[in-house]
């Protein structure tokens, strides 16, 4: 599950393209299949989104929630790919992007009526 926050006037026009870029990075770095896109966009009013000085109104926060198992190298590769591809395809500079990866053990995930540690039919690897 990925949650993306930004000022609505800036985020709404780029949602579709940003979704494609983020999912492309998830596919190329983590090996997620095409049909594993799980994203939520939270467009905010200007007065509801405080961000650090030195950032522009394009400031965007990306929170990536995933099951534990990816190596530090894989997580760093994902973050760097996101910075690079978002700047290249969307035009948001890395100074205006904040990325957080939040990992939880597989037993803390629930989907399709089971917990993540019970799932045996995932179409992707978690330990990469």
Q: Your description of this structure?
A:
The protein is of the alpha/beta class and 128 residues long. A hairpin with a 2-residue loop joins strand 5 (110-111) and strand 6. Helix content is 30%, strand content 25%. The strands form two sheets. A four-stranded mixed beta sheet has the order 2-1-3-4. Helix 2 packs antiparallel against helix 3. It has one domain (2-118): Macrophage Migration Inhibitory Factor. It comes from Psychrobacter frigidicola. It holds the Pfam family Tautomerase_2. This is Tautomerase family protein.
Q: Using DSSP, what is the number of strands?
A: 6
Overall body shape = globular
**CATH fold-level label:** Macrophage Migration Inhibitory Factor
What oligomeric state do these chains adopt? single chain
Structural class: alpha/beta
Given as residue ranges, the uncertain stretches (5+ residues, pLDDT < 50) are: none
Strand order of the largest sheet: 2-1-3-4
CATH superfamily: Macrophage Migration Inhibitory Factor
What is the total number of structural domains? 1
Helical proportion, percent range: 25-40%
- Indicate the CATH class: Alpha Beta
> N-to-C terminal Cα separation, in Å?
18 Å
Whole-number average pLDDT? 94
| Strand content range | 25-35%
Major sheet: size, sense and barrel closure? 4 strands, mixed
Give the name of the CATH architecture. Answer: 2-Layer Sandwich
Question: How many helix segments?
Answer: 3
The whole-angstrom Rg is 15 Å
């Amino acid at each position: 599950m990925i949650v993306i926050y930004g000022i609505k006037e800036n985020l709404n026009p780029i949602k579709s393209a940003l979704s494609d870029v983020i999912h492309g990075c998830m596919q190329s770095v983590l090996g997620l299949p095409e049909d594993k896109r799980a994203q939520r966009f939270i467009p905010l009013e200007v007065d509801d989104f405080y961000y650090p000085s030195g950032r522009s109104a394009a400031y965007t926060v990306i929170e990536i929630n995933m099951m534990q198992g990816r190596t530090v190298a894989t997580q760093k590769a994902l973050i760097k790919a996101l910075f690079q591809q978002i700047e290249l395809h969307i035009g948001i500079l890395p100074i205006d992007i904040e990325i957080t990866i939040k990992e939880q053990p597989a037993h803390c995930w629930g989907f399709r009526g089971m917990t993540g540690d019970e799932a045996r039919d995932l179409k992707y690897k978690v330990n990469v």
